[in-house]
Predict the structure.
Amino acid sequence: MSELFSMASPEEQKLLIRTPRILQNTWDTFRSMGRRLPTDRVDLTFIGGGLSTAETLRLLCERLVDAQKATSRKQRIETRVVESYCDPSGAMSGSLAFGTKAQPGFLLSATVQNCGCPEFHDWLLLNADEVFQELSDSNDILVHSWITENKSLISSKHFEDMHIPRKIFGRFAGTRMLDALYGAEKSGVLRKRTVLGEAVNITQDGTGYKIKLASGDFFYSQLVVVAIGNSWPRVPPHLVNEPRYFLSYANGSLERLSREGPDLLTQLPEEQRRILLIGSRGSALEWIHYLRHQPRLLKLACEISIVSPREGLPELPKDYCQSAETLKEMGLLTFSLGRISSIHKPRKTTQALVVEFKENPAAQPVFERAAIVVNCSGRGPIEYTSSRLLNNLAKQPNIFPTTPGRDGFIVGTNCEVAHTPNAFVIGPLLTPENFREGVDSISTVNRVANELSGVLLARLGGIGDPH
Ligand SMILES: Cc1cc2nc3c(=O)[nH]c(=O)nc-3n(C[C@H](O)[C@H](O)[C@H](O)COP(=O)(O)OP(=O)(O)OC[C@H]3O[C@@H](n4cnc5c(N)ncnc54)[C@H](O)[C@@H]3O)c2cc1C
């Protein structure tokens, strides 16, 4: 700590003093990223530092400590986590759902007691004062509206039936992983280093793997776990740099809409000031909730229209549903059944986009003018995602064979890629098409992390430098 402290700038030192002891560990690894990445071979690498990695690593650390007690094994497992976004305020900062960049007022889709992690409730009770104090210090409009709606439950600490902001769950899962990591590092059974960067390819190298980063750096790992979560769809080439087209969870989309949306709307005649959402699942509902709290945009928009092949919106959380109801009552929210076939870009930037959709493939196309289009349709097949890593892995069908629907890689029951020993996949890339169930909820992530940590422990039995 003292060496680290002396390396830090005055601003960083302030942060270190405020950061709980357990988080300093993350800061330490974060600092080390400034140095050149050694091209050595480590035992285990996780690509992506979100919930799947946090849970698998936590359970692996606990199992390694137990194994050491039972067998007095003398091995230290060298682990790296490659993460494209990371900041010292949290262990899971990059996670789309639970990380630092997630909108602070977005909520868990299930109540605390049904969220898929029973331990979360007890942690919340223990940490409630600090957590809710921080929330009330926030100047986010959605957070304030949530606090107002849930005031009496918060003060009586009846959290069971509440839909809590997702970031709080992220903080819980990150802290719990760091606790386990601290124990494992102290016992000498594992050392973890975080590498800040985007992994762009994984190739076979002898019995292990070479991991290549966008910076050109690379290193080797005996085992590799691909845990990159949900990557959003690729922007169609003709819409790149199109100011009226937004991707639902792409970095900064919500902020850009509040900043630039009013201008985009006022450039058009009133009847064309439509905000069109593609898709009707959780992310569309979150945008509706967000828009409901943007009075400037609501005043200018003539309509918020949803186009989706499936009818209706998800029915939870209740705060979101209330927002949808309010917009319906204001006569602003409409719904059209259909699948988008194309988005036409007008010549002038002061003209509306034209969205073409069909109710079914044989139907006549319907055209709708929209001042702003938000794509909330989710990630789709691997080659339509923005992930360079996924695109490159799909180009190696002998090593990373994709499913016929191309929504993931073919894996065995232990998450290991078919015929590719020691390469594993976890998270939303596991779908019922390639695995026994879709792994895109807290409960499924935890269940699979529990199994995978056991598999990794067995594989790591023979790996690691004695110390
Ligand atoms: C917006 C959203 C809301 C959700 N809400 C809920 C909910 O309320 N309840 C529930 O049960 N489930 C929810 N889920 C589903 C599920 O819990 C999450 O998908 C879960 O986060 C999956 O964990 P993960 O680690 O696989 O992915 P993530 O947590 O998304 O982590 C992936 C990490 O990989 C990093 N990464 C990606 N590509 C690279 C690369 N090439 N190189 C390096 N790093 C990379 C990302 O920066 C990120 O940190 C939600 C999912 C999303 C997307």
Notes: The chain has a mean pLDDT of 89. The CA atoms of residues 45 and 80 lie 5 Å apart. The longest strand covers residues 218-226.
